[in-house]
Protein backbone atom coordinates (compact mmCIF):
# COMPACT_ATOMS: atom_id res chain seq x y z
CA UNK A 1 0.00 0.00 0.00
CA UNK A 2 1.33 3.44 -0.91
CA UNK A 3 2.00 5.83 1.96
CA UNK A 4 -0.30 8.83 2.06
CA UNK A 5 1.47 11.95 0.76
CA UNK A 6 2.73 14.31 3.41
CA UNK A 7 0.33 17.13 4.17
CA UNK A 8 1.30 20.46 2.70
CA UNK A 9 3.94 22.32 4.66
CA UNK A 10 3.82 25.65 6.45
CA UNK A 11 5.95 28.30 4.73
CA UNK A 12 7.19 31.60 6.13
CA UNK A 13 7.95 34.86 4.34
CA UNK A 14 9.00 38.16 5.92
CA UNK A 15 5.35 39.16 6.54
CA UNK A 16 3.25 36.06 5.89
CA UNK A 17 2.64 32.51 6.98
CA UNK A 18 1.38 30.12 4.29
CA UNK A 19 -0.27 27.13 5.96
CA UNK A 20 -2.96 24.52 5.27
CA UNK A 21 -6.53 25.78 5.51
CA UNK A 22 -8.41 24.76 8.66
CA UNK A 23 -12.09 24.67 9.59
CA UNK A 24 -11.64 27.69 11.88
CA UNK A 25 -10.80 29.84 8.78
CA UNK A 26 -14.40 29.56 7.54
CA UNK A 27 -15.74 32.73 9.19
CA UNK A 28 -12.93 35.03 8.00
CA UNK A 29 -12.87 33.37 4.58
CA UNK A 30 -16.63 33.93 4.11
CA UNK A 31 -16.42 37.56 5.22
CA UNK A 32 -13.47 38.47 2.96
CA UNK A 33 -14.51 36.53 -0.14
CA UNK A 34 -18.07 37.86 -0.12
CA UNK A 35 -16.98 40.86 -2.19
CA UNK A 36 -18.02 41.50 -5.81
CA UNK A 37 -14.52 42.79 -6.55
CA UNK A 38 -13.02 39.46 -5.55
CA UNK A 39 -15.69 37.24 -7.14
CA UNK A 40 -15.64 39.08 -10.49
CA UNK A 41 -11.91 38.46 -10.92
CA UNK A 42 -12.13 34.71 -10.34
CA UNK A 43 -13.82 31.86 -12.20
CA UNK A 44 -15.31 29.84 -9.36
CA UNK A 45 -16.42 32.22 -6.58
CA UNK A 46 -20.15 33.00 -6.68
CA UNK A 47 -21.51 36.33 -5.47
CA UNK A 48 -23.20 36.62 -3.04
CA UNK A 49 -21.12 33.89 -1.40
CA UNK A 50 -23.54 31.21 -0.15
CA UNK A 51 -23.86 30.16 3.48
CA UNK A 52 -21.89 26.98 4.05
CA UNK A 53 -19.72 27.40 0.95
CA UNK A 54 -16.61 28.24 2.97
CA UNK A 55 -16.97 25.12 5.10
CA UNK A 56 -17.57 23.01 1.97
CA UNK A 57 -14.49 24.43 0.24
CA UNK A 58 -12.27 23.86 3.29
CA UNK A 59 -13.55 20.28 3.57
CA UNK A 60 -12.99 19.65 -0.14
CA UNK A 61 -9.41 20.90 0.11
CA UNK A 62 -8.81 18.73 3.19
CA UNK A 63 -9.88 15.70 1.12
CA UNK A 64 -7.89 16.68 -2.00
CA UNK A 65 -5.05 14.41 -3.15
CA UNK A 66 -2.02 16.31 -1.92
CA UNK A 67 0.03 15.44 -4.99
CA UNK A 68 -2.57 16.99 -7.32
CA UNK A 69 -4.24 19.90 -5.57
CA UNK A 70 -4.17 22.08 -2.48
CA UNK A 71 -4.48 25.54 -1.03
CA UNK A 72 -2.43 27.60 1.38
CA UNK A 73 -4.16 29.97 3.78
CA UNK A 74 -2.33 33.31 4.01
CA UNK A 75 -1.97 34.74 7.47
CA UNK A 76 -0.36 37.82 9.00
CA UNK A 77 0.54 38.09 12.66
CA UNK A 78 -1.72 41.12 13.14
CA UNK A 79 -4.77 40.20 11.03
CA UNK A 80 -4.80 36.39 10.92
CA UNK A 81 -6.38 34.92 7.77
CA UNK A 82 -6.25 37.34 4.80
CA UNK A 83 -6.63 35.18 1.68
CA UNK A 84 -5.49 32.08 -0.18
CA UNK A 85 -3.11 30.86 -2.84
CA UNK A 86 -3.73 27.44 -4.31
CA UNK A 87 -2.87 24.97 -7.04
CA UNK A 88 -5.62 23.18 -8.95
CA UNK A 89 -5.49 20.59 -11.75
CA UNK A 90 -7.09 21.47 -15.08
CA UNK A 91 -8.87 19.08 -17.47
CA UNK A 92 -5.59 18.16 -19.18
CA UNK A 93 -3.72 17.32 -15.96
CA UNK A 94 -1.71 20.56 -15.85
CA UNK A 95 -1.75 22.52 -12.61
CA UNK A 96 -2.94 26.11 -12.42
CA UNK A 97 -2.27 28.65 -9.69
CA UNK A 98 -5.14 30.71 -8.26
CA UNK A 99 -5.37 33.24 -5.46
CA UNK A 100 -7.33 36.02 -3.83
CA UNK A 101 -6.80 38.46 -1.00
CA UNK A 102 -9.37 40.25 1.11
CA UNK A 103 -9.85 43.83 -0.11
CA UNK A 104 -8.38 45.54 3.00
CA UNK A 105 -5.08 43.85 2.20
CA UNK A 106 -4.72 44.78 -1.49
CA UNK A 107 -1.89 46.96 -2.76
CA UNK A 108 0.72 46.12 -0.13
CA UNK A 109 2.72 43.52 -2.05
CA UNK A 110 1.28 40.62 -0.05
CA UNK A 111 0.26 38.47 -3.02
CA UNK A 112 3.59 38.85 -4.78
CA UNK A 113 5.28 37.77 -1.55
CA UNK A 114 2.92 34.79 -1.17
CA UNK A 115 3.16 33.60 -4.78
CA UNK A 116 6.96 33.86 -4.70
CA UNK A 117 7.09 31.53 -1.69
CA UNK A 118 4.45 29.15 -3.08
CA UNK A 119 6.37 28.83 -6.36
CA UNK A 120 9.66 28.00 -4.65
CA UNK A 121 7.87 25.23 -2.80
CA UNK A 122 5.98 24.05 -5.90
CA UNK A 123 9.25 23.60 -7.76
CA UNK A 124 11.55 22.35 -5.04
CA UNK A 125 9.17 20.64 -2.62
CA UNK A 126 6.22 19.56 -4.77
CA UNK A 127 8.25 18.64 -7.85
CA UNK A 128 6.34 20.72 -10.39
CA UNK A 129 8.26 21.46 -13.59
CA UNK A 130 5.74 24.01 -14.86
CA UNK A 131 2.53 25.73 -13.82
CA UNK A 132 -0.18 27.59 -15.66
CA UNK A 133 -2.09 30.73 -14.72
CA UNK A 134 -4.84 32.77 -16.30
CA UNK A 135 -6.10 36.22 -15.42
CA UNK A 136 -9.02 38.15 -16.83
CA UNK A 137 -7.83 40.80 -19.27
CA UNK A 138 -9.40 43.52 -17.12
CA UNK A 139 -7.40 42.46 -14.04
CA UNK A 140 -3.97 44.05 -14.58
CA UNK A 141 -3.08 43.81 -10.86
CA UNK A 142 -3.16 40.01 -11.08
CA UNK A 143 -1.20 40.12 -14.31
CA UNK A 144 1.42 42.20 -12.56
CA UNK A 145 1.66 39.71 -9.68
CA UNK A 146 2.22 36.91 -12.18
CA UNK A 147 4.80 38.84 -14.22
CA UNK A 148 6.69 39.82 -11.07
CA UNK A 149 6.79 36.19 -9.90
CA UNK A 150 8.19 34.90 -13.19
CA UNK A 151 5.17 33.88 -15.29
CA UNK A 152 5.29 34.63 -19.03
CA UNK A 153 2.35 35.30 -21.34
CA UNK A 154 1.73 32.42 -23.75
CA UNK A 155 -0.15 34.67 -26.16
CA UNK A 156 -3.35 32.66 -25.71
CA UNK A 157 -6.45 34.62 -24.75
CA UNK A 158 -9.38 32.32 -24.06
CA UNK A 159 -12.95 32.95 -22.89
CA UNK A 160 -13.60 31.70 -19.37
CA UNK A 161 -16.81 31.76 -17.39
CA UNK A 162 -16.79 33.76 -14.15
CA UNK A 163 -19.42 32.72 -11.63
CA UNK A 164 -19.04 36.12 -9.99
CA UNK A 165 -19.86 37.93 -13.25
CA UNK A 166 -22.36 35.38 -14.55
CA UNK A 167 -20.67 35.55 -17.97
CA UNK A 168 -17.48 34.79 -19.82
CA UNK A 169 -14.51 37.12 -19.87
CA UNK A 170 -11.34 37.06 -21.99
CA UNK A 171 -8.56 35.39 -20.04
CA UNK A 172 -4.85 35.89 -20.67
CA UNK A 173 -2.95 32.63 -20.19
CA UNK A 174 0.53 32.44 -18.66
CA UNK A 175 3.12 29.77 -17.89
CA UNK A 176 5.89 29.41 -15.31
CA UNK A 177 8.85 27.05 -15.65
CA UNK A 178 10.66 25.77 -12.56
C1 LIG B 1 -5.00 40.53 -7.66
C2 LIG B 1 -4.65 40.55 -6.17
C3 LIG B 1 -4.41 39.14 -5.69
C4 LIG B 1 -3.36 41.38 -6.00
O1 LIG B 1 -2.90 41.26 -4.67
P1 LIG B 1 -1.95 42.40 -4.03
O2 LIG B 1 -1.36 41.89 -2.80
O3 LIG B 1 -2.70 43.68 -4.02
O4 LIG B 1 -0.82 42.45 -5.18
P2 LIG B 1 0.62 43.10 -5.02
O5 LIG B 1 0.52 44.32 -4.15
O6 LIG B 1 1.61 42.04 -4.63
O7 LIG B 1 0.96 43.51 -6.53
C5 LIG B 1 -0.01 44.18 -7.31
C6 LIG B 1 0.69 44.80 -8.48
O8 LIG B 1 -0.30 45.21 -9.41
C7 LIG B 1 -0.14 46.57 -9.70
N1 LIG B 1 -1.45 47.10 -10.00
C8 LIG B 1 -2.49 47.29 -9.18
N2 LIG B 1 -3.52 47.81 -9.85
C9 LIG B 1 -3.11 47.94 -11.14
C10 LIG B 1 -3.71 48.42 -12.33
N3 LIG B 1 -4.97 48.86 -12.34
N4 LIG B 1 -2.99 48.41 -13.47
C11 LIG B 1 -1.73 47.93 -13.48
N5 LIG B 1 -1.10 47.44 -12.38
C12 LIG B 1 -1.79 47.46 -11.24
C13 LIG B 1 0.48 47.16 -8.45
O9 LIG B 1 1.10 48.39 -8.72
C14 LIG B 1 1.46 46.05 -8.08
O10 LIG B 1 2.60 46.07 -8.90
P3 LIG B 1 3.97 46.81 -8.47
O11 LIG B 1 4.40 46.21 -7.17
O12 LIG B 1 4.90 46.48 -9.58
O13 LIG B 1 3.66 48.27 -8.34
C15 LIG B 1 -5.77 41.20 -5.32
O14 LIG B 1 -6.05 42.48 -5.83
C16 LIG B 1 -7.04 40.37 -5.33
O15 LIG B 1 -7.21 39.47 -4.53
N6 LIG B 1 -7.97 40.70 -6.25
C17 LIG B 1 -9.24 39.99 -6.37
C18 LIG B 1 -9.10 38.51 -6.73
C19 LIG B 1 -8.19 38.28 -7.90
O16 LIG B 1 -8.03 39.09 -8.79
N7 LIG B 1 -7.58 37.08 -7.93
C20 LIG B 1 -6.70 36.69 -9.04
C21 LIG B 1 -7.47 36.02 -10.10
S1 LIG B 1 -6.45 35.64 -11.52
Description:
- The chain is α+β, with helices and mostly antiparallel strands.
- It has one domain (12-177): 3-Layer(aba) Sandwich (Aminopeptidase), CATH 3.40.630.30.
- The protein has helices spanning 26-33, 36-39, 53-63, 110-124, 140-148, and strands at residues 11-12, 17-20, 70-76, 80-89, 95-101, 130-136, 152-162, 167-177.
- The chain has a five-stranded antiparallel beta sheet, with helices on both faces. A three-stranded antiparallel beta sheet has the order 6-8-7, covered by helices on one side.
- A hairpin with a 4-residue loop joins strand 7 and strand 8.
- The protein is globular, with a radius of gyration of 15 Å.
- The model has no long low-confidence stretch (mean pLDDT 95).
- It binds coenzyme A (COA).
- Coenzyme A binds at residues 38, 41-42, 99-101, 106-112, 135, 139-142, 144-145, 148.
Features:
178 residues; alpha+beta; Aminopeptidase; five-stranded antiparallel beta sheet; three-stranded antiparallel beta sheet; 26% helix; binds coenzyme A
Compose a concise summary of this entry.
By secondary structure, the chain is α+β, with helices and mostly antiparallel strands.
- Characterize the largest beta sheet: strand count, sense, and whether it forms a barrel: 5 strands, antiparallel
- The CATH level-2 architecture is identified as 3-Layer(aba) Sandwich
Model regions low in confidence, pLDDT < 50 over at least 5 residues? none
- Give the terminus-to-terminus CA distance: 31 Å
- Name every ligand kind in the structure: coenzyme A
* CATH overall fold name: Aminopeptidase
Number of H/I helices? 5
> Which oligomeric state applies?
single chain
Alpha-carbon Rg, integer: 15 Å
Report strand %: 25-35%
Give the ordered list of helices and strands: EEHHHEEEHEHEE
Q: Helix- and strand-based class?
A: alpha+beta
Report the CATH C-level class. Answer: Alpha Beta
Number of strands: 8
Overall mean pLDDT: 95
Strand order of the largest sheet: 1-2-3-4-5
